[in-house]
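Quick sanity check, TonB-dependent receptor plug domain-containing protein:
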Amino acid sequence: MQKPFFLLFIIMLPLSLFAQVKNKEAFTTNLQQLGNGFPQEKIYIQFDKPAYAPGETIWYKAYIVSGTTPSLISANLYVDCADPAGKVLSHMVLPVLQSSAKSNFDIPATYGGSSIHIRAYTKWMLNFDSAFLFEKDIRIIQQKAAVKTIPAINKPIVDFFPESGDCIAGINSKIAFKAIYDNGRPFTVKGSVVNSKGEVVADLKTIHDGMGYFYLDAKINEKYTARWKDEQGKQYETALPAVKNTGISLEVKIAEGKRGFVIKRNAASAGNLQQVQLVATMDQQLVYMANVNLKESLVAGGAIPVSELPTGILQLTVFDSNWVAVAERITFINNNDYIFEPEVGFSTLGTSKHGKNVLIINVPDTLEANLSVAVTDAAIGIDSSDNIVSRLLLTGELKGNVYKPAYYFSDNSDSLQNQLDLVMLTNGWRRIKWDDLTAGKMPTIKYPNDTSYLTLAGKVFGISAADIRQSAILFLILDHKSDSTRNALQVTLDKDGNFSDPNVILFDTTRIYYQFVANKDMVNSTEVAFNNGTLPSPAKIYFDKSKSRYFLDSAAENRTLFFANAEARLAKLMEGNTLQGVTVTTKTKSREQVLDEKYTSGLFSGGQARQFDVENDVSAQGSMDVLNYLKGRVAGLNISGQTGPGSQASVSWRGGTPSFYLNEMNVDVTQLTSISMSDVAFIKVFNPPFFGAFGGGGSGAIAVYTKKGGPNTAAKGKGLPSKLVIGYAPEKQFYSPNYGTFDQRNEYEDLRSTLYWNPMVITTGKNRLVRLTFYNNDITNSFRVIVEGVTKDGRIAHIEKLIE
């Protein structure tokens, strides 16, 4: 896959008109601009196992490539999970590292669907055809799955595909067909093709997985019909595509190291089809071009050398003399240059209960690899229909569905390559809109390259240029949900009110409190909007529900259900054991805790602070003011000078002046000293630093609350304004017990079906040997190990081992 593209021109007819040369040059220039300026991304996701039950966690790793190498286009990946009706269950944004991303999704314990639909994409991919987004249905096994049900009756469908797009009168053309049920499963079809007189002109014979082909010598103004029977012997009729009276056909022949082509036109074709251009592209890059002369002869042919091309889909398109696409064919090039086979084995193997295992992965010299590893109970089975190789090289490039695509990479035999060519004949591929390209029209970019991580950014609306000059600094406090930490910072507004800090990356949900440093009243006349550039969650995902297919036998499903039931039983048992024999007591809340809940909100709630119940403190009434009351009560808080109403007392903590708040509104010290102690209900003195204060609160803060109904009373929740900002999806850590150390959890029954999951195994030339340790559960006696990944130069690895 690391081979560079090359461009080969074959001149089969000298060009004499300047206009033709100019069009050719314009075409190649436009194609080069498309390929270089609008590269395409593809996604593959490895899951830890093929099926799940409600309440379990789906662990996954996504790989993103562009062309033949890991993509450097996008910094963020979106993953949506939906139920079978398309209702979105989760909308996740993930950071892309090493051209990959990892995360997990917890299936609700009450989930009743038979599947979860996964859709993954980058912003950049949304600028192009949505048919190339990653889509996959994950099997969810319910309790009722063990009950035998009557299989649904599926409608059989047979579609016909002329080799290069059209059935042309007077040309003996290859017509491919695909016979599938409406659930995507292929079937063997028997039948024949008849003309309008009922005469048999061709036989229908399935070659592989419902696909086959026949040759048809189409006649002008003739109509053809296929008469066929399904596997139950029921008779059907399907009309073939209409015959065109004029046109071009393109036939491709597979040969070692080359692709032969034959281009034909019928005698009735107009002058624009007498001189044509054959163009071959790969990943939107021009690799071959030939001028083909059909003026003197109705047939011309040649061969395209392909041994130096990277493995993948080669698209051949025929253009008439006006550069209008008139025929198209795709063919798969397999030069076996994509193979990457790290050595995978065990230095220590333990298939007994709690046995220790050391998995060794040895990567060849000079290769930098990004791998993911899943080790599961072998009996839960595997969906071997698709993998990283078939997704990135085949199905990620095709519209429609391919039945068990991984099969086409199981060996290199000629018979398999011919079967793969049937896939090329019966599946659509149109990444390039030729009409737009020849007119010089490039794709419309609605979503620019998402090259930055989710950092802090936003804009202040309703603020004038004069206000920005006076209040150009916005003070922010970030309250992170994921780890309950807080941090404060200041950002400077630019001339149009925008602000950002690329050093602050947002994870999970973050509540951001804000205030203008120079003028706190500015928040009342402006609107602060935080925008980290994330796409909103779609209300619903629309996908072809009839194409949902699972490749897992009943024994594997029952094994998966067994593990799920065992885990649910253990969870319930642990809950019962925890409560059994334990006397549950409740602790009465202190008076200070009650007051804290009653009066404080936001950043003022809880925290490291000394709390004073002034309302019930008799000594408070003997104090002249708040500062006089606090004097000597808080270690490190220094109050000097005369206190009392109107006084100019000095307050310091850690060498600086603490911030002062009255009912959570920032005030100066004179406002606090002017309040009668009879009106004060509650005081909190926050230890330095206090993140609710401007400048980070390095000297702490004093917050005073007046009695409800008294002067300066503020409703709960009054304080700094805030907004909730969504960041990257939180990620759990995969739990793998270590039975070699003491841990109370090691005493619990262990019935994990996924024994080990590591989504980020990175190797380099200097660190190419990796040792991964895990322990067996209580009952598994055979493992299935799957290692997948890509190298920096675009090689793909898919290793599967069954260990018994």
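Posting the structure with no commentary besides this: The CA atoms of residues 413 and 787 lie 25 Å apart.
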